[in-house]
Amino acid sequence: MRRLIPTGDPARPVAFTEVPPPVPEPGEAMIKVEAFAPNRGETFLLEHPRPGLLPGKDVAGLVVRAAADGSGPAAGTRVVGHPAQGGWAAYATVPTHSLAVLPHGIDSARAAALPLAGITALRLLRAAGSLAGARVLLTGASGGVGHYVTELAVGAGARLTAVTATPERGERLAELGAHLVHDVAAAQGPFDVVLESTGGPHLPTALAKVRPGGLLVWFGQAGRAPVTLDFFALLSGPERVTIQHFHYAGGPYAPDLATLVHLVEKDRLHPEIGRTADWAQTADTLVDLRERRIRGKAVLLTGEER
User: What is the gyration radius of the CA atoms in the chain, in angstroms?
Assistant: First the structure.
């Protein structure tokens, strides 16, 4: 079968190779991959790939071999999955605790855009607590996570301010009900909750806008610069603020995947897909995703969904 593997070349991060199909563990199903969605964090891993890295965490397709232990969906079932790795291939093995069944109305391209970004958004909002009437600031908002957070938070009653680099990257967020700014310094606080994903100098600026006793959830460092905080600067603003380090990972993922599928099916969540392409274009798509030339998610199709 065909699989994409790292090259170590930033200009062409992956290339095709021919390998035997993977062998599933007893609690894994074999999936014929119809679509997969890379994440920007994966593009960073590909710059200096560790030995044995098989990229691919967000997939959708068809179960061709059910798990040998009897768990999970039967062969012939359409699913969305979140394996630890190996999803950028014609076939992938996925633990059944990381699969959700797809209804007929959700195509594989939309489904593949759900897992990592959608699970992150759900778990972020749980960490933030009740949002009805809350003032929320979201930085780095124009990626896949930002779109899901915006739609879910506004739907929950939050008054959300979203920071995007350009007006164009924020158009959809404004349609969803967010107030847009294009520099975190321009955001008008104080905020009850800040969801911060850029790091560097932006986190201290966002932190200064948290109300006393408020919450900042730090869930990324997309700017790739470390953060420096000044103890004394906090004395004039957000005293007693809580800074919570957040990482989405930790199975099982099936319940959250099922929730995301349900929200899409009920027309309450709408994946923002900025590019859909054949997986022959994966290398170019990864570069564009890394350089922020794609708004929302990018989805690659292996053939079945073209």
Answer: 20
Extract the tokens encoding 12: 């062409």
DSSP state of 102: P
Burial 163-187 (b: 16+ CB within 10 A, else e): bbeeeebbebbeebebebbeebeeb
Tokens 């005293």 label which residue?
239
pTM for the whole thing? 0.93
DSSP 8-state symbol, 174:
H
Q: At what angle do helices 115-128 and 254-265 cross, to 10 degrees?
A: 100
How many beta carbons lie within 10 A of that of residue 105, not counting itself? 9
Between the two ends of the chain, the Cα-to-Cα distance in Å is: 19
Question: Tokens 């593009």 identify what position?
Answer: 43
Tell me the pLDDT tens digit for each residue of 76-85. Answer: 999 999 999 9
For residues 196 and 217, is the Cβ–Cβ distance under 8 A?
yes
Give the pLDDT confidence of 228-237 residue by residue, as tens digits: 888 877 767 7
CB-based burial, 189-214: b 16+ in 10 Å, e otherwise: bebbbbbbbbbeebbbbbbbbbbeeb
Report whether 126 contacts 69 (CB < 8 A). no
